[in-house]
Amino acid sequence: MSYELTGKLLQVSEVQQISERFKKREFVLERERMGGSMVFTDYIKFQLVQDRVELVNDIEPGEMLKVNFDIRGNKWEKNGEIKYFTNLEAWKIEKAAAEQPQAVTAAAPPPPTPPASGDVPPPGNEPMEPLGDDDLPF
């Protein structure tokens, strides 16, 4: 399953050559989210691996990005100790337009369109039928 997240590029690390056959690069996005009436800032670290380490070469900190990624989990064991790691592995990065806060304004509703003559009788002229004992008004 893949995921998508949009945020502002905060930081890009150098390429790390982990082994002869494996290299990675990390970058961090900053994203604001609403929590009730409060705004929280998240700092989300992504990982690029192998030939994808170059995806952030032409991107500057401060730019808005849309990142497609997968969640990867790993188990690491050494000297009888087991650790688990979760990585957000980015596989596609696009520049995104900066999100502008939307101003909410209350506009007056348009006036009702009058019905064509003969379509609807004027309100208040309909006779009311009496309700029975067990009839509900709706």
Structure characterization notes:
By secondary structure, the chain is an all-beta fold. Strands 1, 2, 3, 4, 5 and 6 form a six-stranded antiparallel β-sheet that branches. It has a domain at 2-95: Beta Barrel (OB fold (Dihydrolipoamide Acetyltransferase, E2P)), CATH 2.40.50.140. It is built from no helices and six strands. It has strands spanning 2-12, 16-19, 22-35, 38-49, 64-78, 81-95. 0% of the residues lie in helices and 51% in strands.
Name its key features.
0% helix; 138 residues; six-stranded antiparallel β-sheet; mainly beta; 51% strand; OB fold (Dihydrolipoamide Acetyltransferase, E2P)
Rg, Å, rounded: 29 Å
Q: Please identify the structural class as seen in this structure.
A: mainly beta
Q: How many distinct helices? A: 0
As a percent range, the share of strand residues is: over 45%
Low-confidence stretches: 100-111
Tell me the span between the first and last alpha carbons: 48 Å
Q: What name does the CATH topology of one domain carry?
A: OB fold (Dihydrolipoamide Acetyltransferase, E2P)
Any idea what the shape is? globular
CATH superfamily caption of one domain? Nucleic acid-binding proteins
Major sheet: 6 strands, antiparallel
Strand and helix order: EEEEEE
Instruction: Calculate the mean pLDDT score and round it.
Output: 81
The CATH architecture of one domain can be named as: Beta Barrel
DSSP E strands, number:
6
Please give the share of residues in helix.
under 10%
Which CATH first-tier class of one domain would you pick?
Answer: Mainly Beta
